[in-house]
Design goal:
The complex is a heterodimer. Chain A is of the alpha/beta class. Chain A contains eleven helices and ten strands. By secondary structure, chain B is mainly α. Helix content of chain B is about 15%, strand content about 0%. The chains are: A alpha/beta, B mainly alpha. At the A-B interface, α4, α5, α6, α7 and α11 of A face α2 of B.
Chain lengths: ~350, ~50
């Protein structure tokens, strides 16, 4: 039976190269109309959009109805303080830093715990209808850096971060969701919060920061940092820097997957939201991320954003296919979430 | 620009057999052996008298 015969025919659409937020716990008529007129490549949800499982399920249905079939639903669910799905409705997960401490005492136990956390987050998010999870954090946890990263990062040692990030990403993929390594090429040295201002990293030797990203270069997604690295490009932060994206993220690190900007509503960047989005895409991001959920600026971003490029579409499809193959291979019966959570909690004590 | 050559690439070396797979049961506590017969107390040898 064709889609048309099933009553769900939609003309082929080319999505805009943007993932956007929405305002509340239900999709408004104006948001639905906007998404039909200017279809985004996906929607990201935050705590403001999530009340409980029933509400979220209804919202996901409404979004799927309004969005193109291949649009992604994205969520920040790292564990620790960055969690949009929270108790009492969903599991709490320890932060990356706790896994790093466990790894330092016993690497095999730390890796298993990181994999379990990735798997559990993936099961929670896939069960709620999400495709893409913005984790793991591959930044270094460096003393003296701003706390915006802090225990969101696994460790100071790039080899520990590389391995733990990989284990967590593998767990997420096993659950059938697409992980996003962040914030390339490394946010760990930032002394300021890019939500509020533009951090400037004056260090010239950033090899250690690159290593966890290079070691995870085959992740399906990575997210850029709103950080200025004068040693790499004195004029533009990574998100807006063609030089950093081309030479470092795509070049030296060698990333070939979907590159999404960090949230372009953050105060680190100048210009209007649409100008920021166009700048990120011009620099080489595949997708611009705009999370404010304010309908007016979101409409402005979508109106001015170009369609996904052919290369971006191919990368998105590869990411989707990778997660789908893992999901198809998932033995749900064997992956008892409660037993996995018990084991993870036991390992973390 | 030259590509980095990393001395160590975890994507090649992380052993996912170590960290992946279904739930693993809590290891059973070590079985304590039944108390074996106490060795006979060594006979106290009287210390030689000094002097």
């Amino acid at each position: 039976m064709t889609h048309a015969a099933a009553g769900c025919y939609r003309p082929a659409v080319t999505s805009k190269a943007a993932i956007v937020g929405i305002a509340g716990t239900a999709l408004t008529e104006s948001e639905a109309a906007l998404f039909r007129a200017q279809p985004p490549a996906g929607v990201i949800l935050f705590a403001r959009n999530i009340a409980d499982p029933d509400q979220l399920a209804a919202l996901v249905v409404a979004l799927r109805h309004a969005l193109p079939p291949d649009a992604v639903l994205m969520v920040d669910q790292e564990g620790g303080r960055v969690a949009r799905l929270r108790p009492p409705h969903w599991r709490a997960h320890p932060p990356a830093g706790t896994h790093g401490a466990r790894f330092a005492r016993d690497p095999q136990t730390g890796l298993r715990a990181a994999w379990l956390t990735g798997m559990l987050i993936g099961l929670d998010c896939a069960g709620a209808g999400f495709d893409v999870v913005c984790a793991p954090v591959l930044d270094l946890r460096l003393p003296g850096a701003h706390g915006v990263i802090g225990d969101r990062a696994f460790a100071a040692d790039p080899l520990h971060v590389a391995q733990l990030g990989r284990a967590m990403a593998a767990g997420l993929l096993t659950a059938g969701v697409q992980p996003v390594g962040k914030h390339a090429p490394g946010h760990g040295r930032a002394l300021a919060d890019s939500h509020l201002e533009l951090p400037v990293v004056t260090d010239t030797d950033l090899e250690a920061d690159f290593l966890p990203f290079a070691a995870n270069v085959d992740l399906p997604w990575m997210m850029t940092a709103h950080v200025l690295y004068p040693a790499l490009d004195a004029t533009a932060p990574a998100t807006l820097s063609a030089r950093i994206i081309e030479n470092v993220i795509r070049g030296r690190i060698g990333f070939r997957g979907v590159l999404v900007s960090d949230d372009l509503a953050m105060q680190a960047l100048d210009g209007t939201p649409a100008e920021r989005a166009l700048g990120a895409l011009a620099a080489g991001c595949d997708v611009a991320l705009y999370c404010s959920g304010e309908t007016g600026p979101t409409a402005g971003v979508l109106a001015r954003c170009p369609a996904l490029t052919g290369a971006a579409t191919a990368r998105l499809e590869a990411a989707r296919a990778l997660a789908a193959s893992r999901r198809a291979a998932l033995d749900v019966a064997a992956m008892n979430g409660a037993a996995l959570a018990d084991e993870r909690d036991r390992l973390m004590t | 620009m030259t590509r980095l050559i990393f001395r160590y690439t975890p994507r090649d070396t992380v052993d996912f057999d170590v960290c992946s797979g279904p739930p693993r049961p809590e290891p059973a506590p070590p079985v304590s052996k039944p108390p074996s017969a106490r060795p006979a107390e060594a006979k106290k040898i009287p210390e030689p008298a000094e002097g």
